[in-house]
Amino acid sequence: MNEILPDEAAKRLLQRVRDRSFRVGVIGLGYVGVPLALAALRAGFDVLGFDINPARVSELNAGRTGIKHIQADDLAMAARAGRFLATDDFSRLDEPDGLIICVPTPLTRHREPDLSFVVQTAEAIAGRLRKGQFIALESTTYPGTTEEILKPILERTGLKSQKDFYLAFSPEREDPGNLRFGTASIPKVVGGDGPEALAIAQALYGEFVVQTVPVSSTSVAEAVKLTENIFRSVNIALVNELKLIYAAMGIDIWEVIEAAKTKPFGFMPFYPGPGLGGHCIPIDPFYLSWKAREYGITARFIELAGEINTAMPHLVVERLAQGLDQRFARGLNGARILVFGASYKKNVDDMRESPSLRLIELIEQRGAQTSYHDPHVPIIPQTREHGGLAGRRSIDLAPGTIGDFDAVLIATDHDAVDYKRLVTEARLVIDTRNACERHGVLAANVIKA
């Protein structure tokens, strides 16, 4: 048989995309990988999913996502029909026509990029890479990662990008719990290592997302995602700082924002909080500030925003201590505090980088006892930075329970909370999300923080 030329191989992949015989491989079956796999399944593609956690693999093969806001019906149907399979057997990486990498990219303790998951995944792919495969990285990272880290590892096999395989970067844009926008309804930025890779990325993603947005390189695509999250980080830092300034002046930042956002141009509302959470905003900006140092540039704006946002849990705890002192002439030492909400945002069970965990640690360092209540998080899972909190359970709110605590700290503003009952029964409420007022509950024992 004659060897397929690179352009012919690309055409074959494009045809397989069109006729849905293209088999999609998703590596990393979490908050990004599962929604992506579901979008591909709904568009008619078969999906082979890879994860290093055998328990996770078994859960998904049983038709359960394990993520509350992600419906499992389509996944269960696809698994029963043989169109979806999860596996921890990475020797099967040569089976899919395309592999999409959705693994974590955390920070080290020194706020430097930790690309170990990307590197390990690339090495696993390299062990099974075959001619004609398409590889896309979705994990958020600094500009140059695909070209400088992923590509060289894959090319150690002797196969070459743009000749033997096709390499692309397409940043994930997931927003857990967002009922308005999901994977399929969010435009997808795609950058390819060469025109064939870009064409395949556009064709594949274009079959299961509303729109593809091609850019000139993988580095540009990587920069797009960082820019989106840095924009949010900087603006959140701004309103967090404004909150402190206005509070000193006796001005309510929430009232200011509500009035300001009536302007139909030139203003976009961002809201203060107890600290940043989720896998993106607390982490991604530091990928760029770290990379900038390679070029002799100090990303002062990004670093300052990070400092402000990182300080917010400490400021909330200080406000809590002041509230106890002013109301009951006592500090945090020996106090009993109930933290409302453990997930990083409302109405989801996502615990990644949740500021609630840091708040609990800081409160207990001041000598207080803490319990937490979260209807979405019955037990705190193991985390990289807060391992000592793993296994703690959400308490039930039986009648009289709330009043047993010296103060309630609202860290996450879940909708499934009776805020009227909370405020009525609590001795003191520290509200970091303006949840009480937004639910129409105004009382003298509520302090905004």
Attribute tags:
449 residues, alpha/beta, Rossmann fold, 2 domains, 8-stranded mixed sheet, 39% helix, disordered N terminus
Summarize the structure.
Helices cover about 40% and strands about 10% of the residues. The chain has about 450 residues and is of the alpha/beta class.
The CATH top-level class label of the largest domain: Alpha Beta
Output the CATH topology of the largest domain.
Rossmann fold
Principal-axes shape call: elongated
Number of helices: 14
Any overview of this molecule?
With 449 residues, this protein is α/β, with parallel strands linked by helices. The chain has 2 domains: 6-216, Rossmann fold; 231-448, Rossmann fold (3-Layer(aba) Sandwich), CATH 3.40.50.720. The protein has 14 helices and 13 strands. It has helices at 6-18, 33-42, 54-61, 73-80, 116-126, 145-155, 195-206, 218-248, 253-260, 284-293, 300-328, 355-365, 419-425, 435-438, and strands at 24-27, 47-50, 84-87, 98-101, 134-137, 166-169, 188-192, 212-214, 336-340, 369-373, 407-410, 429-431, 446-448. The strands form 2 sheets. The protein has an 8-stranded mixed β-sheet, sandwiched between helices. Strands 10-9-11-12-13 form a 5-stranded parallel β-sheet, covered by helices on one side. Helix 12 links the parallel strand 9 and strand 10 (369-373). Helix 1 runs parallel beside helix 7, helix 5 (116-126) packs parallel to helix 6 and helix 11 (300-328) packs across helix 12. The longest helix is centred in the middle third of the chain and has 31 residues, at 218-248. The protein is elongated. It starts with 5 loop residues before the first helix and ends with a strand. 46% of the residues are buried.
